[in-house]
Hints:
Domain Enolpyruvate transferase: 21-176, 270-376
Distance between the termini: 19 Å
Bound molecules: shikimate-3-phosphate
Shape: globular
CATH superfamily of the largest domain: Enolpyruvate transferase domain
Radius of gyration: 21 Å
Structural class: alpha/beta
GO molecular function: 3-phosphoshikimate 1-carboxyvinyltransferase activity
Keywords: Transferase
CATH topology of the largest domain: UDP-n-acetylglucosamine1-carboxyvinyl-transferase, Chain
Pfam family, one: EPSP_synthase
InterPro entries: Enolpyruvate_Tfrase_dom, Enolpyruvate_Tfrase_sf, RNA3'P_cycl/enolpyr_Trfase_a/b
CATH class of the largest domain: Alpha Beta
Strand order of the largest sheet: 4-5-3-12
Number of strands: 19
Amino acid sequence: MAGRKFEKNFDENLKIPYLPCSSKSYSHRFLLLSYVLNRPTKIKNFSFSEDANITLFALYDNYKFKYYNSRFGKTAELILLPKWKTKKEAHYLKDSGSSLRFLIPVFLDGKKHKLEGSERLFERPLDYYEKLFKDEGIEFKKSKNSIEFSGKLTREKFDVDISKSTQFASGMMMAGVNQFDVNYGEGPNIQYIHQTEDAILRMNKSSEKIEVHVPEDMSNRAFFEVLKYFNRLDGDMPKMKAAKSTDNIIGEWLKSNKSIFDLSNNLDLAPVFTAALAIKSAMNGKRYKIIGIKNLAFKESNRTLEIKKVLNLFGYAVSIGRDAIVICERTSDFDYERSIYLYPKEHRIFHMALILSCFHKGRVFIKNKECLKKSHFELYSFLGRMK
Ligand SMILES: O=C(O)C1=C[C@@H](OP(=O)(O)O)[C@@H](O)[C@H](O)C1
């Protein structure tokens, strides 16, 4: 069964080719907007990520894929028609926080809906929606692994609290296209709200049929940027212009002499970036500090703790504060040739373990490559093909 044995072994000879993939965040947004705008839609370069599929299956009972080869490797064009919109009441979302927080406001359409998922999913923040339900008198029932609700949003304006997740604002903005205004306050990861604004602009045109292209996934590209910086990329990777200046920042940061980095607008980069800084620190003896990471605790796992655990396993010393991680060289009595076994709970932590494997002399055995399907199917298949 998947993840039963430590099936892969890596070491300092590991090199990985650049495997681009399309953005799961944009794919999510285009799906939601197609449903809300209620128009025939063609989505090119649709992401094969598990998360995007979860949202697709929740929104549509039927859809058509046309497969083709693009610069992202094997990819697909997804065709959606309004008559294929879901008629089901209950949907299983596994551990996809994005699906949950995007679907709730869209499903506030007067009908009854039930969203089910893993237990961790319902431990993650839902505060804004719970408050919204109470304020609007919307009936809801939340249990350990599901939420049921039925209601409608009737106001013209909503003030959304994004201190725990930007997805509350993104979800409300997509559900409210051409219907109500959304204001939001301060919070980290604001670039994801800009991404929502951009997706709305791309889709909310007057033409009857919608056609959009999903751009490259920049969080996954960051993983390859780190490999490239340390000369562990097999082959080269094409230059690419990021949509926003914050999208492609890793290469620049690694080349700089800075020692403090604020990740509040690039939270998803924390695992691969801490791995990169730990390797740099082992090479040059400098200390590095990452700040702005408070919300990492709300991810698929408690990412701050997972980051510390993985760094410690590879012999890097770290200390953790309320909103910071400090990386302080390598532990002096560490055996660099020993075998390391680890079981990352989620995709971004798996990425980080792969990077650290490239700098470990002994063998590294990593379980659970299935978690990579969440955002990067190509990398998952590549590891499956590795001898
Ligand atoms: O809108 C999106 O697509 C996302 C927003 C961010 O969530 P939070 O604002 O909850 O951190 C990000 O971490 C997540 O991976 C994807």
